[in-house]
UniProtKB/TrEMBL annotation:
Pathway membership, UniProt: Carbohydrate biosynthesis; Calvin cycle
Enzyme class: hydrolase
Subunit description: Homotetramer.
Annotated localization: Cytoplasm
Protein name: Fructose-1,6-bisphosphatase class 1
Source species, domain of life: Bacteria
UniProt organism field: Sphaerospermopsis kisseleviana CS-549
Assigned EC number: 3.1.3.11
Cofactor: Mg(2+)
Length: 345
């Protein structure tokens, strides 16, 4: 074979290999096993990917279809007005796990109690926790949104249906990640072996590996926070904001969808903040569906996530829908915020 032919062949091989690194194959590669645990995790990720594709498809055509955008007129367990897309996305996750034999329970930000799939329960040893649509306020205006997911092993029989075993710290998560619905749809995940980016190739209908072992920079210029809450924050936190205003090299970015903001920070460094307020010291974000999965991911990428006083992954919730403040991102930037908050104690 000539050298030109060899080079052509090897670049075709590389391109094919890249196109074949789908999510399920990647999970198996990571675990270096074809055993039942590895097969389960691979199948779980595959179903989450299907949910992401269905939701992305609906978002892409939302403006062209009847009855997709806007509110349902109902209020969810969080006291927030429910959008039609919240309901759709919540149901998509339930639907993709029916008849899977994998997941007995799903717990979501949108449902007061976990949803049980009885036909899966005798063997389904996993629980899916999720925020079907993160950044709901962006839904009707065609801006970036996300879905957040986390997988935990079911502990005990849960015969009373109270799902008490879920009231446990975030280090119990087996996998976590998010789907980002932006100009392209991305799926970012970790099973405790680094953080990996997949991009949906619409022509294939598959998420293909685009970046492996992503590491968050130790420091970045971005701080991402809703400064409209300035006068509702503790003075120590206000001092931190004054510090970034006065110090050269900081820049603000806030999209209204945490998944987008944290994705930017994961790639470019910086810090995302949703602290408590004087009236709501627990903040807005939910531990089991939002802050713990994102903390797991950012720690896997070498960053930090804290409430200001405690690592997010160490927080043990007292109830399913418990909220926590969140300071998450590059090591140096999170440490800087903490240093201000500790002065206030
Ligand atoms: P949601 O899951 O109901 O959309 O709420 C979470 C979202 C985050 O994505 C975003 O960072 C935050 O709420 C925005 O809240 P606020 O409008 O208070 O800044
Ligand atoms: Mg959310």
């Amino acid at each position: 074979m000539t050298q030109v032919a060899e080079t052509l062949e090897s670049s075709t091989d590389k391109a094919l290999d890249r196109d074949c690194t789908t999510l399920s194959r990647h999970v198996l590669q990571q675990l270096q096993s074809f055993g039942p645990e590895a097969q389960d995790l691979s199948a779980l990720m595959n179903r989450i990917a299907l949910a992401g594709k269905l939701i992305a498809r609906r978002f892409t055509r939302a403006g062209l279809m009847e009855d997709v955008l806007g509110f349902t007129g109902e209020v969810n367990v969080q006291g927030e007005s429910v959008k039609k897309m919240d309901v759709y996305a919540n149901e998509v996750f339930i639907s993709v796990f029916k008849q899977s034999g994998l997941v007995c329970r799903l717990a979501s930000e949108e449902m007061e109690k976990p949803y049980y799939i009885p036909e899966n329960c005798p063997i389904g040893r996993y629980t899916l926790l999720y925020d079907p649509i993160d950044g709901s306020s962006n839904t009707d205006i065609n801006l970036s949104l996300g879905s957040i997911f986390s997988i935990r092993q079911q502990e005990g029989t849960d015969l009373d249906g109270e799902a008490k075993d879920l009231l446990n710290h975030g280090r119990k998560q087996l996998a976590a990640g998010y789907i980002l619905y932006g100009p392209s749809t991305m799926l970012v995940y970790s099973i405790g072996k680094g953080v990996h980016f997949f991009t949906l190739d619409p022509s294939l209908g598959e998420f293909i590996l685009t970046q492996e072992n992503v590491k968050i920079p130790e420091h970045g210029a971005v701080y991402s926070v809703n400064e409209g809450n300035f006068w509702q924050w503790e003075e120590s936190f206000r001092e931190y904001i004054r510090y970034v205003h006065k110090t050269e090299g900081y820049t603000a970015r806030y999209s209204g969808a945490m998944v987008s903001d944290i994705h930017r920070i994961l790639v470019q460094g910086g810090v995302f903040l949703y602290p408590g307020t004087l009236q709501k010291p627990e903040g807005k974000l939910r531990l089991l569906y939002e802050t713990a999965p994102l903390a797991y991911l950012i720690e896997q990428a070498g960053g930090l996530a804290t409430t200001g006083t405690e690592d997010i992954l160490d927080v043990v919730p007292k109830q399913l829908h418990q909220r926590t403040p969140l300071i998450i991102g590059s090591q140096q930037d999170v440490a800087k915020v903490e240093s201000f908050m500790q002065k206030g104690q």
